[in-house]
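User: I'm writing a short methods note and want a consistent example. For TIR domain-containing adapter molecule 2, I'll paste the sequence; you return only the structure tokens, no commentary, since I'll be parsing the reply automatically.
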Amino acid sequence: MGIGKSKIDSCPLSLSWGKSHSVDTSQGHYESASKNSEDISLCDVAERGKTTEEPPGEQEGAEGEAETPEEDDEEEEVFLKFVILHADDDTDEALRVQNVLQNDFGIKPGIIFAEMPCGRQHLQNLDDAVNGSAWTILLLTENFLRDTWCNFQFYTSLMNSVNRRHKYNSVIPCGSPFALQTINALEEESRGFPTQVERIFQESVYKTQQTIWKETRNVAQRQFIA
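Assistant:
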């Protein structure tokens, strides 16, 4: 559910949204030094003075801690504030709208559809984008309205908001035609644009959808394991 940037078919982002270090104990050097104590040089003494020998248990613990950052890379997926669905030729405009919402109004995190992971089917990415975000913004340009795939995204998003109670009013047209003025819409040229943003992107709505999203994912994971 998307949301650098390129067209949908060549999305560059791999969303996520350390490296382990081994511990050199140099025990072989210590053993040979102890067996040949008579041959120990000043350099050997200095070398041993700089190195602190750790018990095996502590060494294993250090290695485990060093691997922690690598494990942190596998973070849980983030439930997004919004995703912008757009035509291929409107990627730059989608990025501009994304920056306005995130930088000017603090509505983050959000993505555009071109940022969805590569290597997956478009339908899977669309499902993840729509259901993995609180609001779906439709960038309704001429390019969008005459594109078959974009029309499919349009109707799929609307039906999703109708069939799922917690998704009601979650589809937000941007630059919408007159026929869509009766529902929530973003009109950037309007004086009331800041008020529209404040009214639509309510934190309480986001929290509610985030909770349902997490519960749905947990159920799906338990079913998969079973």
